[in-house]
Amino acid sequence: MRPSLSALAAVSRSQPSKLKKPAISLDHFIQRQRVLALWREIVRAIHKIPPSSTREELQSYARAEFERHRAVTDVVS
Q1: Rounded Cα distance, 73 and 71, in Å
Q2: DSSP codes of every residue in 40-53
Q3: Alpha helices in the chain (DSSP H)
Q4: Half-sphere exposure (CA, 13 Å, Cβ side) for 6?
Q5: What is the pLDDT of residues 40-52, one digit of tens each?
Q6: CA end-to-end span of the chain
Q7: At a CB cut-off of 8 Å and minimum separation 6, what does 1 contact?
Q8: What distance in Å separates the CA atoms of residue 69 and residue 66, rounded to the nearest whole number?
């Protein structure tokens, strides 16, 4: 590595983060991505249903379930 790059790397590590929330762990990040992928899959499946009251009910149910579990922070493999 060039000396200038190693100096920049050393400087950037010592500065505090500008993010307000602490960084999440890798396991938490992976689980979050899985949840988002599941949400997208559910939304796509619901949109394949012809417009009806059933479709609206499924949309509201899926959203309510995801909102209900929004604050869950424990990561289970």
Answers
A1: 6
A2: HHHHHHHHTSPSSH
A3: 3-14, 26-47, 53-68
A4: 3
A5: 999 999 999 999 9
A6: 37
A7: 9
A8: 5
Supply 25's token pair: 């762990």
Residue 35: what residue type? V
Phi, psi of 44 (to 5 degrees): -65, -40
Could you give the CA distance from residue 60 to residue 46 in angstroms, rounded to a whole number?
Answer: 11
Compute the distance between CA of residue 27 and CA of residue 15 in angstroms, rounded to an integer.
25
CA distance 26 to 43: 26
Query: pTM value?
Result: 0.67
Distance (Å, whole) CA 48 – CA 54: 12
Asked if residue 36 lies in contact with residue 44, where contact means CB atoms within 8 angstroms, the answer is: no
Tokens 């424990």, located at residue: 74
51-77 average pLDDT score: 91
